[in-house]
Specification:
By secondary structure, the protein is α/β, with parallel strands linked by helices. The chain has a domain of 66 residues. It is 38% helix and 21% strand. It contains 8 helices and 9 strands. The strands form 2 sheets. Strands 5-6-7-3-8-9 form a 6-stranded mixed sheet, with helices on both faces. Strands 2-1-4 form a 3-stranded antiparallel sheet, with helices on one face. The N terminus is likely disordered. One of its GO terms (molecular function) is ATP binding.
Length: 269
């Protein structure tokens, strides 16, 4: 199945309005190591990527290809060796594989903490936290402690906390990888629903090909060691999608074959 051009409303809106890129990554190189610890080891090499406002992009690749490193550079958690990253006027919100909720706080108070750091006045925090819990379909969970929540519920609270930062850019590093297949599928639906109701730009890191095709408008494949943009696919499959949809399966097979070729090429070095 060849990659095609989507006509999704998010992309049409971004192009028609002439908005700047949500993320612009230009000629990014990243190496680890120094003269004192041996030769520098290149992890990313000449990465160029543009994410439009409101676009959902999945970053895919084998383990160790630099996906999380690139996400950390976009988040500002590290600096590139060379090149530049420009954000469209917003500080990104982060969501990781571990929910990182404070166990001594309730679900609502975890969200309120993000609101307080954002400068939201005290009287407005609880109503906003409850609104965000409703958005992720956890209405009534404001007082629940972390140990009372399932893994999927904890990730929903983590998503609500990320949304509380009021950023237009959401960076997600394999947030559903530790969940069982059924819970992961439910959260795919929830994330797609929340994204469709907002103007968020999303950069989502995964090593799961079907997850990438299930969620993204565009799938970007990184090669292995050092990571380079090997190929991109625009996903012209209407949302909502399901993992088992034939079109999702067909494109997943094509991307998987390309991923295997990249892994074999790396294995020859």
């Amino acid at each position: 199945m060849p990659p095609t051009t989507t006509t999704d409303r998010h992309e049409r809106t971004a192009v028609a309005s002439g908005l700047p890129a949500a993320v612009r990554i230009e000629h990014i190189h990243k190496s680890f190591g120094s003269a004192g610890s041996g030769p520098a080891r290149p992890v990313l090499e000449d990465i160029n990527l543009r994410i439009r406002p409101g676009e959902f992009v999945c970053l895919l690749g084998a383990s160790g290809c630099g996906k999380s490193t690139l996400l950390g550079l976009v988040a500002g958690l590290d600096r590139p060796t060379s090149g530049r990253i420009e954000l469209g006027g917003t500080r990104p919100a982060l969501m990781f594989q571990e929910h990182a909720l404070f166990p001594w706080l309730s679900a609502g108070k975890n969200i309120e903490l993000a609101l307080r750091l954002r400068g939201v006045p005290r009287p407005d925090r609880r109503p906003e936290a409850e609104r965000l819990l409703e958005l992720v379909r956890l209405g009534g969970a404001y007082r629940k402690r972390v140990h009372e929540l399932s893994g999927g519920m904890r990730q929903r609270v983590a998503l609500a906390r990320a949304l509380a930062q009021d950023s237009q850019l959401l960076l997600m590093d394999e947030p559903f990888a530790a969940l069982d297949a059924i819970t992961r599928d439910v959260l795919h639906e929830e994330l797609t629903r929340v994204w469709s109701r907002t103007s968020l730009s999303v950069l989502f890191v995964t090593h799961n090909v079907r997850e990438a095709v299930r969620l993204g408008q565009r799938v970007v494949l990184l090669s292995s060691r050092p990571g380079r943009v090997a190929r991109e696919w625009t996903v012209d499959i209407p949302q909502p999608r399901r993992i088992e949809d034939p079109a999702v399966a067909d494109l997943s097979v094509e991307i998987t074959e390309e991923l295997r070729r990249e892994i074999r090429r790396h294995g020859k070095h």
